[in-house]
Amino acid sequence: MWGRFTTAALAGLMLNGLAACSDGRFPDYRYRITIYAQGEAYSSVRQIRQREIFSMQDSSGRKVETSMNGQAVIMDLPDGRKVYATLVGKDSPEQAKYIPRVALLPKGYKRPNLPNMLDGISAEQKAIIGTVGSRDLPRTVTYNPLHREDYSPEITWPLFASFDDPSDWTTIHTVDPEDIGVNRITIEITDEPVTTGIEAVITKPGNGPRFKQWQRSLKVHDDRISIIGAFFERDAK
Questions:
Q1: Mode of pairing for the β-strands spanning 62-71 and 135-136
Q2: The domain containing residue 80 runs over which residues?
Q3: How far is CA 133 from CA 29, 32, 73, 188, 193, in A?
Q4: What are the distances in angstroms from CA 72 to CA 139, 154, 182, 202, 233?
Q5: Looking at residue 20, what is its pLDDT?
Q6: What is residue 54's predicted lDDT score, i.e. its pLDDT?
Q7: How many CB atoms lie within 10 A of CB 137?
Q8: pTM for the full model?
Q9: Domains of the chain: total
Q10: Per-residue pLDDT at 71
Q11: What is d(CA 98, CA 201) in angstroms, rounded to the nearest whole number?
Q12: How is the chain split among helix, strand and coil, in percent rounded to 5?
């Protein structure tokens, strides 16, 4: 399920995430996410790519298609626990694709009112990519254009997960960031290589009957459903 901010803001921008297009209008970029916990810093570099494509569903006939290459942040904590900052959030399975916009768009930025909507999106993305240094990722954002009284801020920090037995995906469980001492998350644009190697730390989910039966037993809104598929993101071309 898409989050409220993601659905209303990004879909409204004709985005599934953030910028990239081979013609330079939506340049590719990489960003580093850093998690600060228990006096240590843990990070991962991810690649965002987009391309402008034809769309019969949009009035302009064009939209921006996003892909990402990256992985969860591996956290070997001083207290001996191994925790993963996943690619999904409480309110969106696409969270890793749009958090640079949340953290890096200059405060008070207003997208230029240009005749072509994609030109405005392009200008916004270049403002994000032009950011120098790291910026804090706020834990929540408020996007309530309809001024609903029952609205609550959307969580933009990733979901954290751990395993009782790393070789058994049925032992996965969510972890509260306060319980592991997470006090800050930052995002910054970088030209460093995309982080790899998580496959050597934890295998991909199995497909045996025991795992499938356990997976089917999960409730519809169980965060583990999104997390299971969010350790290995390799869809950028």
A1: unpaired
A2: 4-234
A3: 14, 10, 20, 6, 17
A4: 18, 21, 15, 11, 8
A5: 35
A6: 66
A7: 21
A8: 0.82
A9: 1
A10: 94
A11: 26
A12: 25, 30, 45
Q: What is the pLDDT of residue 125?
A: 83
List 63's β-bridge partners, or say none. 53
Nearest to 89 by CA among 72, 103, 75: 72
Letter for the amino acid at 159?
Answer: L
Q: Is 19 within 8 Å of 107 (Cβ atoms)?
A: no
CA separation for the pair 43, 37 (Å, rounded): 11
Q: What region does 51 belong to: left with phi over 0, alpha with psi -120 to 50, or beta?
A: beta
**What confidence score (pLDDT) does residue 49 get?**
86
**Which residue reads 């892909």 in tokens?**
67
- 10-residue averages of pLDDT along the chain (237 residues): 41 36 72 98 93 64 78 96 94 88 83 73 84 94 64 87 92 96 98 93 85 92 90 61
Residue type, 166: P
